[in-house]
Amino acid sequence: MEQIRIITAAFSENDLKLISDIIEDETFKQTIFVQPNNNGLQKAGTQPADVLIICTTGNTDDELDFAERMYMTRGDLTIILLCANLTTQIIDKAMLSGVGRVIDINSTSDEIKTAILETYNRTKNRIGSVKTNVSTYESKIISVFCPKGGTGKTTISVNLAVSLASIGKKVALVDFDLQFGDVAVFLDITKADSIYDLVEENNFELSSIKSYLIRHYSGISVMLAPSTPEYAELIKATHIEKILTKLRSEFDYIIIDMTPAFNDCSIAALDLSDIVYFIVTEDISTIRNAKTCFGILDMIGVSSKIQLIVNKDGISTITVKDVEDVLGTTAVVVLPNEQKTTTHAINCGVPVVLSDKKSKFTHAMLSFAKSLATEK
Fold it and tell me: Which residues contact 113 (CB under 8 A, 6 or more apart)?
C-alpha cells in the first residue's frame, strides 16, 4: 500500500510531537515539519506531499492564514486542522481558508487517523474527477472603466464578480485602481497583502500570484490595490501583463476595477482585456467625458472592445436613449438608481447582490451576469 505523505505544521514543539505520535503508522509517511509562517510556506510550497496537517492549541489566526496561502498555492494538498476548543466560528473560518476537515484535538488517535484518510480520499477523488473532465471554457478578461469618479465603477466591478461566482463561475476580481482602489472597503477586507507585495517579491509564477489572492466568502478571489498611493509608482505595465496572462489560465472571468486614468498600466490592462465595460451616468459632465474618452480608446486600438453600461438610471431628465445617441452605441445593460441601497452596502462592506437580494439593482445585475455567462 502506498503511504500517504504528510507535512506537519505547528508553532509548538508539543503540538508537533502530538501529530507525530498520532500518525506514527505504516499508512502515513511524515515528510517535513514546518512552522505556519512565511518560512514554513516556502518550505512546504515545494515539498512533495499529499496531506498538510496544521495543529494548534491556541489562537488560530496565523494557522488559518497559513492554510489559506497553502490552499491557493497547492491545490493538490488535503489540508486538515487539528484544533482545541472548537467553535462554529473557527470551523467557518477554516472552511473559508481552504481547510478540508477540522478535527477536535481531543479525539482518539483512531478517530483522527480515520478522519485523515476519509478527507484525503475525498480530495483525491475530486482532483481525479477534475482531471478527467477538463473544462472547455474560454477565460475572459473584463475591464470596468470610467475616467470620471462617482459613476459606480467599483460597485459594478464587485457585484458583477460576485454575481458570476453565484452562478458557478470561477472569478478573480483585481483592483487596478492602484492609487486609490476601494475594492477592499467594498468587501470589508481589512488586512491583507496586495499587488504591491507581489511585485516586491518579484515572482510571477502562477502559484506565487495565487498566494496573493484573498478568498472572499462570496466565492471570488481578490487581488487588492496597494495600501498607500506611493506604492503605485512601483507597479509597471510588465507586471500587469504577467499577472493577467497567468490568471487567464486559472479563472473563467478576471474582472478588473480600472483606474480612472490613462497610463502605462491601465493601457496594458485594456490591451489584454476581451471586453471593456464603459460606465456612464445620465449627466452632461459624464457623457461629455465619455465622448472624449471614446476617442482616446479608439486611438490606442481598443474601441472594438467597448460595451456601454448606463448606471443610476433615472437620476436626471436625460434618458438612456439620449446617452446612446450621443455616444453612438447601445447599452448592454441599464442599472437602476438605488443610491440608498448601494451606499448601505458599501458602508457594510457587503455587495448589493448579497445584502439586498430583492433590490432592482440585484435583479438587473444577476440577469446581466447570466446573459454574459451564456455568451460564446
Answer: 22, 23, 25, 27, 28
